[in-house]
């Protein structure tokens, strides 16, 4: 725990705020994922587009915290695992069911942001 606190202390103010936003976003996304079916708001957008956008934004929040390509890669897989866990846990929520296509949309959204992050590392390397 002490090491984690020291690591947090070494972050810039922007990174600290980003980390706080990331935790809040994860909590809201997790809550929304596990709502019973009758409590899920109806939105006139293709469901997979919502999954894609939600997980792309989730991954984009990790970019300021990913100081290396390896950290970026780890962030990507953690977010994919978060999405997979959410899909599996939906089986426990009344009226909800896990969907492989939702998981694919989640992963593609995270992958899109990962590619943006890798592109950013390439730009940083050449300048």
From TrEMBL:
Keywords: Membrane, Transmembrane, Transmembrane helix. Residues 31-117 form the VanZ-like domain. It comes from the Bacteria. The chain crosses the membrane at residues 17-37, 49-65, 71-89, 101-121. InterPro entries: VanZ-like (IPR006976). PANTHER family: DOMAIN PROTEIN, PUTATIVE (AFU_ORTHOLOGUE AFUA_3G10980)-RELATED (PTHR28008:SF1). This is VanZ family protein. It comes from Spongiibacter pelagi. The gene is vanZ.
């Amino acid at each position: 725990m002490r090491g984690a606190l020291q690591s947090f202390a070494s972050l810039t103010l922007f990174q600290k705020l980003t980390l706080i936003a990331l935790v809040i976003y994860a909590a809201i996304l997790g809550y929304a994922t596990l709502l019973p079916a009758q409590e899920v708001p109806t939105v006139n957008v293709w469901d997979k587009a919502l999954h894609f956008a939600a997980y792309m934004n989730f991954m984009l929040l990790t970019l300021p915290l990913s100081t290396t390509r390896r950290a970026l890669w780890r962030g990507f897989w953690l977010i994919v695992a978060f999405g997979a866990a959410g899909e599996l846990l939906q089986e426990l929520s009344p009226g909800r069911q896990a969907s492989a296509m939702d998981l694919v949309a989640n992963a593609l959204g995270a992958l899109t942001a990962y590619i943006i992050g890798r592109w950013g590392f390439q730009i940083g390397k050449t300048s």
